[in-house]
């Protein structure tokens, strides 16, 4: 095995027929599951996970279609629907013996975590979201030339065939572009980790595209159905984001309000890969999240936890329940 999360045991666990997730497991205490983003693997948590493992049993899987996990052929749009990928995480928790668990996701993993919180509120005790808005809102806030920052989403939303061929023709340049463009601290992803991200992505082009294609199809349908039904995330929710709202012209906190009952929103000056650029800050925020008790119907004022460094600032846009902005 190449690069690993120090001190963690690696397991391959069947979560669906013919689909196994590779997961790093370490620590002892209440369960905490960390989901990675694009174009990465569970290794993005290599600095954060050991800190959390001092207090929790921490599980860092590679998502379906990524890293060392199974990559089933996308026989239909449901294969990589976030509902399906969220069910994988619940099945993983079942095998590991966790009835309830805190869940934190970054980028693609945050979309999976969001869906898990809506579909399995009895299983997810606390929810952490790093650097996204919900799928439905993602497409709504992308418009005009500002949408160029997400050109990959439009590319991978196209019907099967062309996106996969175009990416395969220059895979390292494609995936490497995001590792460079989205980082404000190049040293945060050293050469060996970067090479592993590129290798893993190069061997997962079809499944990565299928994951993103679902974001433009079935995932929107599921989000819209929940929004229409008034379904909300009922557990404590923490959102940490770059200031995309200022760049693209939207109020990120207002976007999250209709989806939550107990929200804290933070803005970071770190780049997209914040768990690698500001790991101590992200670990502190996660630990603060899992200490929160459920307070149904109340938005919490965001308060900077003690010890946070300069890379995370606090959104002061909390509001009263029932005022979705």
Give the biggest beta sheet: 9 strands, mixed
> What is the percent of helical residues?
25-40%
**Element-by-element helix/strand order:** EEEHEHEHEHHHHHHHEHHEHHE
Structural classification? alpha/beta
Q: Treating each run of at least 4 consecutive H or I residues as one helix, how many helices?
A: 14
Kindly report how far apart the N and C termini lie.
49 Å
Give Rg in angstroms: 18 Å
Structure, described:
This protein has 325 residues and is of the alpha/beta class. Helices cover 39% and strands 17% of the residues. It is built from 14 helices and 9 strands. Strands 1-2-4-3-5-6-7-8-9 form a 9-stranded mixed sheet, sandwiched between helices. β3 (31-35), α1 (48-52) and β4 (57-61) form a beta-alpha-beta unit. α2 (82-96) crosses α3. The longest helix is centred in the first third of the chain and has 15 residues, at 82-96. The N and C termini lie far apart (49 Å). Mean pLDDT is 89; it is low at 296-325.
């Amino acid at each position: 095995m190449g690069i690993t999360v120090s001190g963690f045991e690696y397991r391959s666990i069947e979560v669906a027929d013919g689909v196994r997730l590779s997961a790093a497991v370490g620590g002892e205490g209440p369960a905490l599951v960390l989901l990675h983003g694009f174009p990465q693997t569970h290794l993005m948590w290599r600095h954060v996970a050991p800190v959390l493992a001092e207090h929790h049993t921490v599980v860092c899987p590679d998502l379906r279609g990524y890293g060392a996990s199974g990559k089933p052929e996308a026989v239909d749009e449901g294969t990589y629907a976030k509902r399906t990928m969220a069910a994988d995480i619940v099945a993983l928790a079942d095998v590991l013996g966790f009835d309830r668990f805190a869940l934190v996701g970054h980028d693609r993993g945050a979309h999976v975590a969001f869906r898990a919180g809506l579909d399995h509120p009895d299983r997810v005790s606390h929810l952490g979201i790093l650097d996204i808005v919900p799928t439905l809102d993602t497409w709504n806030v992308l418009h005009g030339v500002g949408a160029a920052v997400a050109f990959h989403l439009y590319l991978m939303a196209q019907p099967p065939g062309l996106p996969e061929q175009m990416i395969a023709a220059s895979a390292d340049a494609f995936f490497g572009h995001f590792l460079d463009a989205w980082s404000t601290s190049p040293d945060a992803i050293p050469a060996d980790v970067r090479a592993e991200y590129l290798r893993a992505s190069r061997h997962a082009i079809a499944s990565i595209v299928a994951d993103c294609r679902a974001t433009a199809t079935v995932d929107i349908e599921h989000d819209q159905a929940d929004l229409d039904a008034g379904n909300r995330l009922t557990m404590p929710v923490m959102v940490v984001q770059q200031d995309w709202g200022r760049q693209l012209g939207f109020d990120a906190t207002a976007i999250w309000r209709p989806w939550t009952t107990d929200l804290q929103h933070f803005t970071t000056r770190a780049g997209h890969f914040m768990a690698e650029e500001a790991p101590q800050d992200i670990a502190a925020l996660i630990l603060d999240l899992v200490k929160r008790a459920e307070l149904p119907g109340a938005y919490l004022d965001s308060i900077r936890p003690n010890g946070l460094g300069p890379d995370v600032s606090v959104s002061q846009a909390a509001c009263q329940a029932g005022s979705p902005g």
